[in-house]
Design a protein that fits this description.
This protein has about 260 residues and is of the alpha/beta class. It has helices spanning about 50-55, 65-80, 100-105, 120-130, 150-165; strands at about 1-5, 10, 35-40, 60-65, 90, 110-115, 140-145, 170-175, 180-185, 185-190, 195-205, 210-215, 225, 235, 240-245, 250-255.
Length: about 260
């Protein structure tokens, strides 16, 4: 999702989903793995071509508990059931349907049940992925489908996991209409693709009060104090293909996401 260039962090954002080899900044980062995590939310019709592309490119494919039900449902609807077998299904498995479990076990998927209730299935899935990576987890881009829709407590937990892991994992979440990731403390540059990103965007100070300076947005900020209780930059507009953010604390970047027509 991001790379360090000196003291600046570069976020490829949607170029990780649609790489452009015309520039080193927008090409797929070299020596980087791609992992796909499927959470327990339906995969929208308008995201299915993208899902298929990420599935094909991924070196690790993991369903998080009931995410296997969603993959199974998608496979039965588009006749890909036999060609999309996950490497593993991870979680406490309280949502996994018996016939789905049996099907994937019969096709050699690892089904691993965790009884620990102090961590969520999403956390268990990331930990399992870490155990399988040949490189360190920050040399892997993890694309997550789901997690920011449905129940509010699940949505807030997904955001919490993103913040808690952003220093050692590159995670980007694809939801129905948004692309979301964490921007770390310091100076960052976000590369926006006008074909799929925006126009609306937001910078969410969910880790506590921060001071923001930005460029490339319709309504930029200069040393603006931002907090959950106070001012937040929501319903902003992407005006330039390169956005800079200087922040004294990690923030969530979220932007409208419009995959090309299937």
């Amino acid at each position: 999702m991001s790379s360090d260039e000196g003291s600046e962090t570069v976020h490829r954002a949607s170029y990780l989903l649609y790489p452009d080899d015309g520039s080193e900044d927008t090409a797929w980062p070299r020596s980087t793995d791609l992992a796909l995590l499927v959470l327990n939310e339906p995969i929208p019709q308008h995201n299915r071509t993208l899902f298929s592309s990420i599935w094909t490119r991924a070196t690790h494919r993991i369903c998080i508990d009931g995410g296997a039900n969603q993959l199974y449902s998608l496979g039965t609807s588009d006749n890909t059931l036999h060609t999309r077998i996950p490497d593993a299904i991870i979680g406490d498995l309280d949502s996994l349907l018996p016939h789905v479990q049996k099907y994937y076990e019969n096709h050699n998927a690892v089904v691993q049940k965790y009884h620990d209730q102090d961590s969520t299935d999403f956390m268990k899935g990331l930990a399992y992925l870490d155990s399988k990576l040949e490189r360190q987890s920050n040399n892997c881009v993890t694309v997550v489908f789901g997690g920011l829709g449905g129940r509010l407590d699940h949505t807030l937990h997904t955001l919490k996991v993103l913040f808690n892991s952003h220093t050692h994992r590159n995670v980007v979440v694809v939801s129905d209409d948004n692309l979301t990731f964490v921007v770390p403390k310091g100076r960052s540059r976000i590369l926006a693709n006008s074909q799929v990103d925006g126009p609306a965007c937001g910078i969410l100070p969910l880790a506590g009060q921060t001071v923001l300076t930005t460029s490339g947005l319709r309504w930029n900020m200069h040393e603006q104090v931002s907090s959950f209780e106070g001012l937040m930059s929501t319903s902003n507009i992407i005006d330039r293909p390169c956005i800079t953010i200087d922040t004294t604390a990690p923030v969530a970047w979220t932007a409208q996401f419009r995959p090309p027509p299937n």
